[in-house]
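ZP: hey, is the glutamine complex queued? I don't see it on the tracker
AM: it wasn't, my bad. submitting now with these inputs:
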Amino acid sequence: MNELLKKSASEQRKALLNKEVSAVELVNATYARIDEVEDKVKAFNSLTKETAIETAKKVDEKIAHGEELPLLAGIPLVLKDNMNLIGSKTTASSKILENFVSPYNATITDKLLENLVPIIAKANLDEFAMGSSNENSAFGKVHNPWNLNKVPGGSSGGSAASVAACEATLSLGSDTGGSIRLPASFCGIVGMKPTYGRVSRYGLIAFASSLDQIGPFARTIEDAAMLLQVISGYDPKDSTSINAPVEDYTKSLNNDIKGRKIGVIKELMGEGLSDDVRKAVELAIETYKQQGAEIVEVSLPNLKYSIGIYYILATAECSSNLARFDGVKYGYRYPDAQNLLDMYTKTRANGFGPEVKRRIMLGTYALSSGYYDAYYKKAQQMRRLVKEDFDRVFKEVDILISPTCPNTAFDIGAKTEDPLSMYLTDIATISANLAGIPGLSVPAGFDSDGMPIGLQVLAPQMKEADLFNFSYKFEQAHDFYKQIANV
Ligand code: GLN
């Protein structure tokens, strides 16, 4: 592998500016790496070579003319395959969209292209982003670059695995209930979910619209901060997008945290936590203490309900969002239907995989007239309580820390027969989606089998700069992020 591929985006940018490498060479080196390892990792649904090379050429022209380079220009990036790139397939890893070609760009795609970021591939995911292991994809499983027998986490498994395997420098994922942070933690990289509304969701295939948020994957906090800066901002095409200026998130990375307050979430340090993961969080506590921060234990008493709340709200919202896949408007249509109703039902029965069907059934039930008050309404009320728990503790502390997941990556196949145990993987991440707050996972060491551990850091709404600052302080105190998976 070309050694430059192991480097961060900011180092690759320097190499481009110093003319040590051209953008086209960097993209080609990335494709050579993909040729080398992709048959083992299987991170991608499709490659988007034409657009990647075209963008890289524009970068090289700018460099040749001595023009200023936009942030992240020329840095190879992967989109999760539920985000639109005009003219390329967007499948959401579902049979129902197997041949769907995006007729327009997502807003994040437009922003990336304006910044001359070469989009090199579309990454595999759990079908419609429903899952925690990437095993629910209609197009095969993704393998964890640290151990090919383990899952990469999900649902943004391909996005995370590709960056961990140096098949890309950066990628984007979507996080509805942990789908960026969990795979980042399982693959030993940084994954960040912004404040709900910070990044436009226009052109992202909707799963649960009150929870979905797009965010960056990178090997360093600085890279993730730069990528967030490029993709965030107000978008009139997404009515939930927040109209607030975009900050320079790299400016405050190194701010002193002396005297600032960090809360450790009590409920996530209890039973069920593996010893190695506990030690990693304790290491973070020690690191922050040495840097002069004050550590306090905080309690979020309603956090224990978050999985239950999530699986009512997310399934209810997805049952409504996925109603549009009916064989008429998009994608696959069952070919031999007897009549219209037969066409609808057979299209959906054949087009959706088992987990997606399970969610639609659960969600439709929760929204049905006899049960709406008992389930959907109650879950909305409980969601409010979870948010109020966060509001209360954030009056006391600046930032929260916890494990990203109680365990490290599990074996492929270990949880596929037991959806409930799969759902429990997200115990630490889901509450941030319910509350709309930003969170990230930063590499925090390895377990006794050499699998990566993630530390979760959470901040109040719109406090992304703080989130990056605290995470950077931990990252720079250790060398975990410098270790690269040996695929
Ligand atoms: N694992 C969760 C689910 O299956 C979260 C998925 C996500 O964040 N997209 O719904």
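AM: back. The first strand starts at residue 44 and ends at 47.
ZP: great, adding it to the tracker
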